[in-house]
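Intended use. Records like the one below are meant for learning the mapping from a protein sequence to its folded structure. Do not use them to infer anything beyond what is encoded.
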Amino acid sequence: MPEPDRTGLDGSLVVHASGLLNALSGLFETLWTLAMPVSAETEQDQLSDRDRSIIMLMAAGATDEAIARRLHLSRRTVVRRIAALLDQLGATTRFQAGVQAAKRGLL
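Structure written out for the chain above:
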Protein backbone atom coordinates (compact mmCIF):
# COMPACT_ATOMS: atom_id res chain seq x y z
CA MET A 1 0.00 0.00 0.00
CA PRO A 2 1.46 3.41 -0.96
CA GLU A 3 2.25 6.03 1.59
CA PRO A 4 -0.73 8.41 2.09
CA ASP A 5 1.26 11.54 1.18
CA ARG A 6 2.59 9.96 -2.08
CA THR A 7 -0.69 8.63 -3.50
CA GLY A 8 -0.89 9.31 -7.24
CA LEU A 9 2.65 10.66 -7.50
CA ASP A 10 4.23 7.61 -9.14
CA GLY A 11 4.99 8.68 -12.69
CA SER A 12 3.61 12.17 -12.18
CA LEU A 13 5.30 15.42 -13.02
CA VAL A 14 4.34 18.85 -11.74
CA VAL A 15 5.01 21.68 -14.19
CA HIS A 16 4.74 25.24 -12.95
CA ALA A 17 3.89 28.18 -15.18
CA SER A 18 6.93 29.80 -16.74
CA GLY A 19 8.05 31.69 -19.81
CA LEU A 20 9.57 28.54 -21.27
CA LEU A 21 6.33 26.61 -20.80
CA ASN A 22 4.37 29.40 -22.51
CA ALA A 23 6.84 29.44 -25.42
CA LEU A 24 6.73 25.66 -25.85
CA SER A 25 2.93 25.65 -25.63
CA GLY A 26 2.73 28.37 -28.30
CA LEU A 27 5.15 26.46 -30.53
CA PHE A 28 3.10 23.28 -30.17
CA GLU A 29 -0.14 25.10 -31.06
CA THR A 30 1.46 26.67 -34.14
CA LEU A 31 2.86 23.37 -35.35
CA TRP A 32 -0.43 21.60 -34.64
CA THR A 33 -2.30 23.99 -36.95
CA LEU A 34 0.19 23.23 -39.73
CA ALA A 35 0.15 19.46 -39.19
CA MET A 36 -1.20 17.04 -41.74
CA PRO A 37 -2.98 13.79 -40.92
CA VAL A 38 -0.90 10.65 -41.22
CA SER A 39 -2.55 7.91 -43.22
CA ALA A 40 -1.57 4.88 -45.25
CA GLU A 41 -3.08 6.46 -48.36
CA THR A 42 -1.69 9.61 -49.91
CA GLU A 43 -3.91 12.60 -50.67
CA GLN A 44 -3.52 11.88 -54.38
CA ASP A 45 -4.95 8.38 -53.86
CA GLN A 46 -7.95 9.88 -52.07
CA LEU A 47 -8.82 12.46 -54.73
CA SER A 48 -10.73 11.72 -57.89
CA ASP A 49 -9.60 13.16 -61.21
CA ARG A 50 -12.56 15.54 -61.09
CA ASP A 51 -11.54 16.79 -57.61
CA ARG A 52 -7.97 17.33 -58.85
CA SER A 53 -9.37 19.35 -61.75
CA ILE A 54 -11.47 21.43 -59.37
CA ILE A 55 -8.42 22.14 -57.17
CA MET A 56 -6.36 23.13 -60.22
CA LEU A 57 -9.08 25.50 -61.43
CA MET A 58 -9.52 26.93 -57.92
CA ALA A 59 -5.76 27.53 -57.72
CA ALA A 60 -5.95 29.31 -61.08
CA GLY A 61 -8.57 31.66 -59.61
CA ALA A 62 -11.61 30.32 -61.45
CA THR A 63 -15.04 31.09 -60.01
CA ASP A 64 -17.55 28.37 -59.14
CA GLU A 65 -19.47 29.20 -62.32
CA ALA A 66 -16.35 28.96 -64.50
CA ILE A 67 -15.38 25.63 -62.93
CA ALA A 68 -18.91 24.31 -63.50
CA ARG A 69 -18.86 25.35 -67.18
CA ARG A 70 -15.36 23.97 -67.76
CA LEU A 71 -16.10 20.57 -66.16
CA HIS A 72 -19.71 20.33 -67.40
CA LEU A 73 -21.11 20.24 -63.86
CA SER A 74 -23.86 22.15 -62.12
CA ARG A 75 -22.78 25.10 -60.03
CA ARG A 76 -24.32 23.43 -56.97
CA THR A 77 -22.21 20.30 -57.52
CA VAL A 78 -19.09 22.44 -57.72
CA VAL A 79 -20.03 24.27 -54.51
CA ARG A 80 -20.56 20.95 -52.70
CA ARG A 81 -17.29 19.45 -53.99
CA ILE A 82 -15.34 22.59 -53.02
CA ALA A 83 -16.84 22.46 -49.51
CA ALA A 84 -15.82 18.79 -49.22
CA LEU A 85 -12.32 19.58 -50.52
CA LEU A 86 -11.91 22.45 -48.05
CA ASP A 87 -12.86 20.08 -45.26
CA GLN A 88 -10.54 17.35 -46.51
CA LEU A 89 -7.63 19.79 -46.78
CA GLY A 90 -8.38 21.37 -43.41
CA ALA A 91 -8.87 24.77 -44.99
CA THR A 92 -11.45 27.48 -44.39
CA THR A 93 -10.77 29.55 -47.52
CA ARG A 94 -10.02 28.78 -51.15
CA PHE A 95 -6.59 30.35 -50.71
CA GLN A 96 -5.79 28.05 -47.76
CA ALA A 97 -7.01 25.07 -49.80
CA GLY A 98 -4.64 26.04 -52.60
CA VAL A 99 -1.74 26.35 -50.17
CA GLN A 100 -2.52 22.98 -48.57
CA ALA A 101 -2.95 21.31 -51.96
CA ALA A 102 0.41 22.68 -53.11
CA LYS A 103 2.12 21.56 -49.88
CA ARG A 104 0.70 18.07 -50.32
CA GLY A 105 1.75 17.82 -53.97
CA LEU A 106 -1.77 17.90 -55.39
CA LEU A 107 -1.11 20.73 -57.86
